[in-house]
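INPUT
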Amino acid sequence: MVIEKKFLKGNPLKDISEYDFPGLRRALSLGQENVIQEISDSMLLGRGGAGFPTGTKWSLALEQAGDKKYFICNADEGEPGTFKDRFLLEERPLKVLEGLMIGAYAVGADEGFIYIRGEYDLPIKIFREILEDARDEGILGKNIFGSDFDFDLTLVRGAGAYVCGDETSLINSIEGKRGISRIKPPYPIQEGLFGNPTVVNNVESLACAAEIINKGAGEFVALGTDNSRGTKLVSLSGDINLPGVYEIEFGCGTLEEIINDLGGGVSYGNKPKFVIPGGLSTAALLPEELNCGYSYEDIEEAGSSLGSGAIIVVGESRDLVEILLKVSRFYMDETCGTCFPCREGNKQINFMLNQHKNKKFTRQEVEIIKDIGDAIAAAARCGLGQTSLSLIESIFDKFPEELIEEVRHSEKVRNR
Amino acid sequence: MKRLEIDNIEVEVEPGTTLLEAARKINVNIPTLCYEEELSIFGGCRLCVVEVNGGELLKPACATEADDGMIVKTHSPRVREVRQTLFELIIASHDISCELNCLTCTRQSSCELRVVAEDIGISRMRLNPIYRGLEKDFSSHSIVREPNKCITCDRCIRKCEEIQGIGIFANSARGPETEVTTFQDKGMGNVECTNCGQCIISCPTGALHEVYHSEGVWDALYDENKHVVVQTAPAVRVAIAEPFGAEPGTVATGQLVSALKRLGFDGVFDTNFTAYLTIMEEGTEVVKRVTENDNLPVLTSCSPGWIKFIEHFYPDYLKNLSTAKSPQQMFGALAKTYYAEQAGVDPEDIVVVSIMPCTAKKFESRRPEMNGDVDFVLTTREAGMMIKSAGINICDLPEENYDNLMGVSSGAGDIFAASGGVMEAALRSAYYLITGEELEDIDIKPVRGLTGLKKAEVPINEDLTLKVGVAHGLSNARKMMELIKEGEEFHFVEFMACPGGCIGGGGQPIRADMTSEEALQKRLEGVYSIDSSKKMRRSHENPMIQKLYDEFLGKPGSHKAHKLLHTEYTARGLN
Amino acid sequence: MKKSNDIFLETVHNIQQTYGYIPEREINQLAEKFDQPRAKIYGAIKFYSMLYTEPTGKYIIRICDSLSCHLKDSHDLLLAVQDYLGLEDGETSSDQLFTLEIVECLGHCGEGPVMMVNDKMYTELTKGKALEILQDCK
Ligand SMILES: Cc1cc2nc3c(=O)[nH]c(=O)nc-3n(C[C@H](O)[C@H](O)[C@H](O)COP(=O)(O)O)c2cc1C
Ligand code: SF4
Ligand code: FES
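OUTPUT
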């Protein structure tokens, strides 16, 4: 039986007069190196999807020369099925702010941005108020809490472009450009916003960082598995009885248990047709593959990825092509349109799927889809493109009878 | 130095060298589409992807710097496979259909997609184009955009912004709708486009091309009641043989005349003639304005792209422009007056055609203040196409001379084709007009060559040293204007919209086989080879010019000259 | 882009709050302020689906049709709303009251189907509830 482990979750915390920022105060007394050491000790992996170690990112950023550095909180959450950052922004915004400020202090940034997607009206309002109050209270500004740490934070509203969640696109977007990805290297920590070293962290990563400094790395490391420490906020949605955001200690249960114990089981048919374990950029898992532990490594072992922690359950009798079309339309609409494989590839895939609403695919068509998938994965410029066909390809792999025509005798002869 | 291995060959390169450059160093050609040497890196087409250290993710060679110990495979089976698929996708996005196909395409023989197809060894094409149904942009007098053919490589965007410093194009929308467009989708004719045509030269496909005038010219030629005369600009003769397989810079003046006569033109004239006239008029104006200290510096007015530029971006300086019309328009004005009189033809029946290296000349000919003196303007490319479709190979023709009336030329006109040419010719004449003597050191070298901004001081007499400047390419024009704005002193400044001057014009042949720099250099050598081989090199020495003034215009700057040969400008700003 | 002390996106959002869209003359001014060709500013604005260069309806109705909402029958909701408004994706009603958009995930996937009316989010909708909400838009 899986139950929630509350490390990040807690009572709503929005009123700045009720919070003393103990983590930030502790950080300021620890000093930059020690803060980073503690984050490194916690083995926190970035929660934005890529899973990059936060301690490493911060220490690389600290090493960067230059007197101007930026710290950005990525609150552009937009991958279908993901809403855990919104939960934090609405319920625990002060923890996010605290984590952000701890990070900024640790890497030596004096200016920061929180980029919230434009559709998140409530979080925007909450943060606008918090920033005003924080400035009034001297929590933002010069010599914060009597230290020599100066920091100001600006709220930037996104304007409806999922790809801006990618850190390089997000930086372009703040700079006032089209939100298209940048070619890496240089990485943002080398040359980011306005050409200066820039750290970008996810909302949840920062909330974790705040709690780690607050409670000590020890408590965090003690949770989870060897390779996945701490807890993870999971967004459960789709054909499930009790959707929502749940906090799960890594390794404390399987995907199946999460779906049944926390999610209350499948709501459409008796069992899932498949489950998407980490958002639309991750491969589907069949019911028989759900017996895998919830951790970065176990899900990878099962052939998929934990991604942003969005678990989408698809019920037994769902129409596959309908679902493929939704996935494909998302990628087609949301590519930034800069690199050819991603733009043209996703467009072609969507076109082909649209022609197969009640018709199976031929072997040749599947081969084309696979070739396009390979080309995008190998040659696209950013993560959006590179992973855009993971889910679609996995569905073709796992449901051949439902999707692909039997090879007819005549065709076999012709192919020879 | 960085040491690495590309396709099993050891290479050593300077830090900062890209894999694309490193591979070229050992003569390995990696296909590219969105890459252009003189522009910033875009990294969109991904055709140049290569395998680095066996990694899953392929790296764009154009945007990846060489590093120590890299093992690079530029044509591994995986790379070739991915490239084939990428190319299939690109072609599917290029929308080849009945209406739009290779055979009727302006770039049928200079299509970069075809070059790349060959480089890749493309062996399959499994995807059909998804019709985008975008409308063609016919708003401009000079340039047509066919967005369905556009593959959004962004080269035109970068060319316009980075080389010309204007930026009329941008990417708009997102995802599958991503397209290249203009401000508020107004179309090229309704924004600050200077019509220079440099975007056409950069486009790898036929998505951008000139507004064709060739149909009108054919009709005029077929019409027995029309008397059709043609003028050819200096820069055309060093480029017109290119579509017939010759090297850039091949001088084909006589062959061009011969070809045009075969096409049926009733008179074939050299724009050089009116180029002298421009020099005489402009030189006179310079002398007058320098002595009277009247709105200095004098800015040249013969490049119509530059004129539109200054009308949009520096309208306060229109009074500094020389009022002299460009040689093209002077020819048009004279053809329908002086020439009509001489030849005894009703001006109504005269059709004036020009062959120009320039797309902006099309717009110029349509300016209301030009009275429709020039009826049709063909680019060098269009002229080449017409000659070809008449079954003529220009390289095989004997040389013929221009028709007489306006046809004797000296070198001073030919160098109009290159940046610094107008300046040099004008200096030769101004010196004469002021001192009554010939300028001894006739090759005024500092104003020649491909440097973007050039300055020189030419001592005229004890009291006067002329400070002159030359700028070509509109980014440089902007820099020069900023210098002038800041108060740097000049008497006379030459401006050309296109990098290199007219030889690099937007109407010149497009090379899929060499960079535009290389082509420019070769054409430049061609131009100066004509100049130094000519005897008569000063405008004021041209006997026909003397005759024209004596018989018709009076003297330079006269009332009649003003009426026919001078013009005015429009302050446009950004509207 | 030149770092004007203002953040471009915020400036643009504010303009849109004033006019309901971003008028041409404002783009001209933005070009000057941020020292960019105006085509570029236009292109940047057009990148974002929440920014408009032409007037929209007084109420912008956004219905999520991404996967999780799709599994909660967002399609039926969509059809009902389309039918009620007589609008297709991206269209604005002739009385300038409504603009309808089918959008990707709005971040309320656990509470689908979801509809946004201007800034306001409505979750766990039924057709009936949605039409009631629209009837109140005047
Ligand atoms: C297409 C795309 C969308 C992304 N969206 C988000 C997002 O909404 N939120 C986020 O935090 N990271 C997102 N990322 C990941 C970011 O690029 C970046 O890795 C992350 O913000 C770093 O934070 P972390 O180290 O704390 O995880 C996205 C990446 C890609 C390629
Ligand atoms: S992969 Fe897609 S989203 Fe990323 S740069 Fe390329 S086109 Fe843009
Ligand atoms: S040439 Fe390298 S990506 Fe286009």
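end of record. Residues 2-92 of chain B form a domain with the Ubiquitin-like (UB roll) fold (CATH 3.10.20.740).
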